[in-house]
Amino acid sequence: MDQCNMSMLPKIPGIYQSYLEIKDKYPIGSDLECIDNVRFIKSIEKKKETLFCDADVAMVMLAKGHNVINMRNWLAFDDKEVLTFYAYHKKSGRGSSGGIDYMLKRLKIIYFLVDETIQVNEPTKPNSGYPQGCFIKKQKIPLPGCDQETGPYYRLPDLVVGTTVIFYGKELRITGVDAFTRDFLHTMGVPAKDNEQIPEDPYFEYRKKADLDVSIKTKPNLNRNQPPNGYDSLILRFRGYWDNRDQMEGELHFYEVLYYLTDDTMELVEEIVDETRVTGIRHKMVVRRQRLPTEGPWCLQPGYNVKQDILNVMSTNKNSFYYTMDSQIGDEQKVSYYHCTDLFIGQVLNVYGRSVVLFWCDECTKSFYRNVYRLESFDPIEAPKTMKEIEEEILNQKRVEIILKNYDEVLRKRLIKYGGTDIIFGFLIKMITDDPINQGRNFMLKYYLDDTEFAIYEYRETNSDIDDKTLQFMMDNPKEFSHSNLVTVRSKTREVINNRFQSLDEFQTKYFQDRELVDRDEFRNVLSFDGELNPHDGVVLALKHKRPDPFEPFTDNVLRSSVQDAMRKGRFIHFDGLKNNLRYRKSKSDRVGYIVCSEAIKAMKSNRVPLNEEITSILVNKFTDTENGCTVNFEDMVEFMDYVKNPVDPPSRLARELLFVKPKKVLIRVKEFIDGLRSET
């Protein structure tokens, strides 16, 4: 087998074997040879390679003003002087699923004038799916059927536009040249043909047909509010804490929260106490600079923000199908992020499940919110104390108690000596409770200096010294109690108003404006007319026109929760028996499911329903139909009470604290009062 045919076989072990020495270096040969220690210039015939420029190439360089005749290539050129040819190569396809027989590779053939070597590169095409870059390394490429070591090799005259060259068994179709190469060849006297049109790649045509290419473009964020001028590079600085000590092994964490106005990103750095540091604090990055979402999901699953779905397009031929994008664009899932308008003292940030409370900001941040958003309130809130601070505070309190204990005894003896034993200190105190009835109660604490004892008395405010029932009895019997005669009191009040004002409307506008309800104390103060009218007259009118609110209003859910809680605590479960008892009792109404109020109360007592009389009365009145002879809809009432079939959340407080809350203020109906004065005219 000759050497030329040997080179046509694939060079794999067992088929091809070369006994020649493997050449890995290509140094430039010497022009001198040594014979008997005498140096002579080598003859051109002994050269293994052409050392001088090609004649045609030398004429081109001479036309460009460079005389390279009889000059060696490595002196006349450098690696930057290259000729570029455009070509393509058809590679076998990936399969027949989309009808693709081949893929087309766009290539660049680079011819180096310095050593007549060739390099083939493939320009990078994004999202192609196969490796790109260097297709054939820089080397001398032998002609088809020839050996790599002996040649002959491809030279410049072999590269012609419109022809096909074979590099190592790969057919490359030359389609054009660049401007420099075209001018170079034209100067050589070998004009290049016009560039040919490169065919389209069937694989990318298939992808365009199936709409599989989703172009990724950077779009401006039009929704983001640009920061005001002069604040682009400003960083807002807050401090916050996350207290999870209610959990097992939980701790109190302090964070430094940074907000960058330039791109609306946030950064969280934890402040850790470290006594080994000079500052005593060590910083740990918790959240790197990024846009912080206001709510989950914190970890986006694949396909969360994909606008379209991929569909399989089937045909009768099972080997012919392709993919396409769904034309029905679904709703885009928007993610909301924190903005500078969401940050303020007391705000609770949801930082990937951590509730971080902001409690402080620096002066630069205050100035920004003051100038841009006209905010003035920047009072810091008190952050929770760490265990170390609590222990130090307790220790300081014990120290103060020891000091004051010794000091108080000396001070007490000195006060008794100069002021006597009758010195009593008084303090007004209030009860700390959630009970609305006891919240308004005031107490007096007295400290007796002589024997260091305390006494607590309830402080009662002064009133009219008369209760509502007594005053109402006096108003109902005007002959026996003339000073409580409503007609006389209204007449006296109207006379005083006529002396001071031109009309009742002027009086109403000055003191009550457009209000329909006013506080009783304010009403009595207005009717006193600086002492001209008897205070008893104001009390009579206030009682007459008082809004009848024995208790604060409550919702149906509060009543239902309280009733079911009482039934649950009383272990009452016989709701079907209660319903049958109500159904079989005598009713004056012909309507099914209704019963007289008195019979309903008797049935509830006979079944031993664990409700007191007040709650029972409220419950019966709720389901009473007064238009049909005071009958009760017992079907709905039992369903309302049944905590087994229709359970609700238990109440937050006791029933008496929810249903029987006395109004904090007694309100007077102004319109009714004015109409009563007009009726006396």
Automatic annotation (TrEMBL):
InterPro entries: DM10_dom, EFHC1/EFHC2/EFHB
Main location: cytoplasm
Keywords for the protein's UniProt record, in alphabetical order: Cell projection, Cytoplasm, Cytoskeleton, Repeat
Superkingdom: Eukaryota
Record's protein name: DM10 domain-containing protein
Biological source species: Aphis gossypii (Cotton aphid)
UniProt KW Repeat keyword: yes
GO CC, alphabetical: axoneme
Keyword Ubl conjugation among UniProt keywords: no
Pfam families found in the cross-reference section: DM10_dom
Domain DM10: 79-189, 232-373
The organism's taxonomic lineage, starting at the top: Eukaryota, Metazoa, Ecdysozoa, Arthropoda, Hexapoda
Record's subcellular location: Cytoplasm, Cytoskeleton, Cilium axoneme
